[in-house]
Amino acid sequence: MSAFIRLLGDADLESAEAILESAFRPSGSWIDDLRLFRTIQPDGLFLALLNGSPAGMVGAVNYGSYAYVGLMAVHQEFQRQGIGLSLMQHLLAWLDGESVPCVVLDASDKGQPMYEKLGFLAYDRTHVFQHSRVLPSCAPEPHVQSVPVQNLDDLAKCAGDVFGADRSKALRALLAALPERAFMVRDNRGRATGFIFAQRNRIGPWVAQRPQDAATLLRAALSLTYDGTVSVFAPEMNQEGTALLKRYGFEIARTNRHMGRGQGGPPLDQSRIYGLTSFALG
After folding, report:
1. Closest CA to 257 of 225, 241, 235
2. Residues with Cβ < 8 Å from 254, sequence gap 6 or more?
3. CA dihedral (134, 140, 144, 147) positive or negative
4. Has residue 139 got a pLDDT over 90?
5. Beta partners for residue 275, in sequence order
6. What tens digit of pLDDT does each residue of 162-196 get?
7. How far is the first Cα of the chain from the last one, in angstroms, to the nearest whole number?
């Protein structure tokens, strides 16, 4: 029997969390990620039902010049029944209808063959760094600024130069969800040259024009407290970022394959990205 796929709404969040916990088994809650996603792209999450039971899910955020796919999961009870493929085909048909020229994602080793069948090509890799010990004690430096919502336009311009798309809707949602947990730096002309968000147990998005700015921003983020293990999703291409994270005690826990499908090459400037928002939002 084929799965029935429909939009995932607020009433489905607990079912979606159960699917994600079954598929990935991480510690902590997925609810915050799901609510943030729903705020940014309410029409971009899909739920698969098999015999009326929630069986799988997937989502994508449409940034205009490309879409970022994430939260792809099938409950363990329903795996190996073609649900993941059906979800991806449904999602890609929706994105084609939205005229999205390029679709990107970060695939696990297990998921990569399915994405290759759907026409995705491997670009590079994304490391998942984790810090499970006591974080180093740091203090923000005087020229690091907290980010009020009034500075959204400055952040959006800085992000657009790096991510290759208008990320203002994601940044607006992050600023609302994480008051006083975002920092930025400027050059001597007053232009934003980097920013960092400290989520509950993840650092990102984190971008910087210069390595010294990236280090300054990381120290600001490490001045805050976190819930349990802290993760950073960092492009392998950014070797300076890898060295910086290791210097502060972060270790690679696993590596995913960054992949894309559609026109052109990778739309993101990985050399200036030190940490993604998540594997759902890019």
Report:
1. 235
2. 108, 127, 128
3. positive
4. no
5. 206
6. 998 999 999 999 999 999 999 999 998 989 999 99
7. 33
